[in-house]
Design goal:
Rieske Iron-sulfur Protein; binds FE2/S2 (inorganic) cluster; 15 helices; four-stranded antiparallel β-sheet; 21 strands; binds fe (ii) ion; globular; 2 domains; 31% helix; alpha+beta
């Protein structure tokens, strides 16, 4: 592994990406990772939490923002704060759980206690500190890092002191956030407690590429397609055949293949058309749960708007650089880079407030089938991501190929459109990657 972090220039970065090939250093060089942390994960808006996790004062989420481990908190003043998870006394990490509620964060080492806005609440044995020591001195507080912006409940943060407005960064992807929220009959969504986190031994970009890669499922997921084909229809009353339909969808036939369109946008965002087109996954009116759900949504939105909302049919909406949303299945994956060859993925599902409980049960099953550590889908993908990383650590034949479909891509108003067989979304991601990494000043 090439982990020496020697300085890297904008010319070096440009030299790593050709129109149809990428150099392995983009995935395996610690200096490149360092620059990504500075120019992508520090400067762009990074998804860090959902407001439904931060309803009450003291609610918090632990995650990362570039090189910082952070706590995203809700304080008694109603505001959201992003704090470095480090004690100003002697530097200990304070909080070791991923979410929860705390009136104060108490450091385990010498018990300095901090309010959710980072201010220092108390220190034991106050009188042993010098007279000049003050609880109000910001130096003695958990440090606030970055800025926060919220779009319809999705909380983003950035270390950029002069960031573009969040909606500008989200661009055409605001529609998928709108669509997810609009699907809730009560107009509100919440992250379910059921969620998974997994770590893979590979670069963070491999996950985003996989989420935009519709060419691989027939090969990578074949081991679960074959048993699903052998299983009788409606074999499971428990899940109304949802699992079987999901697994079958990965064994594309030509008709499904040709019906899929990929959309990529400048900035690195992308999505594909729905790949689940059958049975309980396709929101058919004939399904009694969908009928009840549609009635509840219609009561709020009216029939025309309801039809529009339910018609949006996009899969794996990638909001560059760290979020993948699937609105109609109430799913979300969050990519958290740890090092050049280690990445965390948080996988959550949402409850649509006002929808029948069965909708939520389906979302949880979707999560389990697709994304859990014991899943029959994402665990296959993770194996591929790790194998790619293993191959990319070697220096012989350093260029990898992204040429598939390059002659057939069409430019759209703000990006590119292609058929399913194209690697256009990865080319779009690398175009954005070069432009972010070579922007020397913000
Ligand atoms: S390191 Fe936190 S109180 Fe001492
Ligand atoms: Fe996959």
């Amino acid at each position: 592994m090439d982990k020496s972090a020697s300085p890297i220039t904008s010319d070096d970065i440009r030299s790593l990406v050709r129109p149809d090939h990428v150099h392995r250093r983009a995935y395996a060089d610690a200096a490149v990772f360092q620059l990504e942390q500075e120019r992508i994960f520090s400067r762009l808006w990074i998804y860090v939490a959902h407001e439904s996790q931060l309803r009450k004062p003291g609610d918090f989420v632990r995650t990362r923002l570039a090189a910082y481990e952070i706590l995203v908190t809700r304080h008694t003043d109603g505001n959201i704060y992003v704090l470095q998870n480090r004690c100003p006394h002697r530097g200990a990490r304070i909080c070791m759980v991923d979410h929860g509620n705390a009136k104060v964060f108490s450091c385990p080492y010498h018990a300095w206690s901090f309010r959710p806005d980072g201010s220092l609440d108390s220190v034991p044995h106050r009188k042993s500190y010098p007279e000049a020591f003050s609880l109000d001195d910001p130096q003695n507080h958990m440090q606030r890092v970055g800025r926060v912006a919220v779009y319809r409940g999705f909380v983003f943060a950035t270390l950029n002191e002069n960031p573009a407005p969040l909606v500008l960064h989200l661009g055409p992807m605001v529609k998928v956030i709108d669509n997810l929220v609009d699907r809730a009959p009560d107009g509100e969504i919440e992250i379910a407690d059921s969620s998974f986190t997994l770590e893979y031994q590979g670069n963070w970009k491999l996950h985003l590429e996989n989420a935009a890669d519709i060419f691989h499922p027939s090969f990578v997921h074949n081991s679960s397609v074959a048993p699903a084909r052998r299983a009788p229809a409606n074999a499971s009353l428990l899940d109304q055949d949802q699992t079987r339909e999901m697994l079958l969808a990965n064994g594309f036939g030509t008709a499904e293949w040709e019906g899929i369109q990929l959309n990529g946008f400048s900035g690195g965002h992308a999505y594909m058309n729905n790949i689940y087109s059958k049975g309980v996954l396709a929101s058919q009116d004939a399904d009694p749960v969908v009928a009840r759900y549609r009635a509840a949504l219609t009561a709020r939105l009216g029939p025309e708007r309801t039809a529009q909302v339910l018609a949006m049919n996009r899969f794996n909406n990638i909001i560059y650089p760290n979020l993948v949303l699937n609105a109609q299945y109430q799913q979300m994956r969050v990519t958290v880079p740890l090092s050049v060859d280690r990445t965390l993925v948080h996988i959550h599902c949402f409850r649509l407030k006002g929808a029948p409980d069965e909708m939520f049960h389906r979302a949880v099953r979707f999560l389990s089938t697709l994304g859990s550590p014991m899943s029959m889908i994402f665990s296959d993908d993770v194996e591929m991501l790790e194998r790619c990383q293993q191959g990319l650590t070697r220096d012989v034949g350093p260029w990898i190929d992204f040429s598939r479909g390059i002659g057939t891509d069409r430019r759209s108003q703000d990006g590119s459109i292609s058929g399913a067989a194209s690697e256009m979304p990865m080319r779009i991601q690398f175009e954005a990657w070069v432009s972010y990494l070579t922007a020397e000043a913000v």
